[in-house]
């Protein structure tokens, strides 16, 4: 646990008592603050009370006496589409509004750092897609080469649940737009921008607000090194802005999947399955990614470029990075290879909750038996029509099934309804060399608690064949 600094003896409101909210309350208490906790869910109130925390309804003005700050959980809107009523109360009562990411950066550095031989560093990864895999891949490589490393944020442990810094330690954080948009303090040593595609637009008031939330990690955080994907115009803009602000191209490493990057600046890109590092106009390293089973497809090659750039920034040699790219087995529910059975590959990409994410896995494989459906997102799967020639048959599940039929054109399909039936039907139809792919392009909440539960159900159904 990282005790929160700067609120010793102060009352601090905590709104939202899920995983990060309770961790925040514990860290505040450890730092000498008095947490005043609230959640609209009765069970979560009782859980906080059982740990001995003061629980008070922060909808009521009388409970705001003496509260100087409100820490809100990432899922709670503070501006769009409408601020939570408790956040409005905080504003009216003159309280600062922050989140656990802001508290982390406020509290991570301590006077004890003066005694360290090597200063700890924080690596932060953000973007619409691929940030979890990239975060896990960076952690995997650093751990395998013997570095003291921990991982958290939007993956694994909450940031305040992590260990206090030790000599030379590297902390790798996955940060969502919900986390970066509100944090009052951001101070990464290395920051990574993966990509940007439409998501959470209601929460951010449109694409401009969404990009602004992501870019705060760089413009407000001022990292020593920024690793920016320039495959989209937002990344190109951000890279150019950071170069101008810092007066040199060296603090920026541009990455790409599919494009050769020109010029004398530092770049890492993947083309036709090969990763290349260029510096000062010449190639200094190359890695063949094509046979790395844990990183299939162009989207995973982008993840590999980002992780490679981070590890080079930390000082690792290319051959050490390559060895541990090859030993990476993949992240659960993200193009995860479950097994190969009678020459048929079974792939769990349950995390693909929109068409943009599903596109990545459809591009990574051929001869696909595609399991899709759930709670549909705006636009459905119509944007994927150009990939239907890679699909042998579609197996539709959940609420989206009937609507998706109209978007499939002449592609063969079966309405399976339930996931286990879809797995059985796909496995029976698949031939050697085919791929059974769960890439739903939908949210999971019609039939499952979350995408993890949906992915677990797919794995169980595959193993039951």
Short description:
With 465 residues, the chain is an alpha/beta fold.
Explain the overall architecture.
This protein has 465 residues and is α/β, with parallel strands linked by helices. It folds into three domains: 11-98, 3-Layer(aba) Sandwich (Rossmann fold), CATH 3.40.50; 108-326, UDP-N-acetylmuramoyl-L-alanine:D-glutamate ligase; 336-463, Protein-Tyrosine Phosphatase, Chain A (Alpha-Beta Complex). 33% of the residues lie in helices and 23% in strands. It has helices at 19-30, 42-50, 85-92, 100-107, 131-144, 177-180, 201-204, 207-219, 233-246, 297-314, 318-326, 355-364, 401-405, 419-429, 451-463, and strands spanning 11-15, 34-38, 54-55, 67-72, 96-98, 121-126, 149-153, 170-174, 190-193, 225-229, 252-257, 267-271, 274-279, 282-288, 336-341, 344-348, 368-373, 375-376, 391-397, 413-417, 435-438, 442-443. It has a nine-stranded mixed sheet with strand order 7-8-6-9-10-11-12-13-14, sandwiched between helices. The protein has a six-stranded mixed sheet with strand order 15-16-21-17-19-20. The chain has a five-stranded parallel sheet with strand order 3-2-1-4-5, sandwiched between helices. β19 (391-397), α13 (401-405) and β20 form a beta-alpha-beta unit. It is globular, with a radius of gyration of 23 Å. The two termini are 43 Å apart. 51% of the residues are buried.
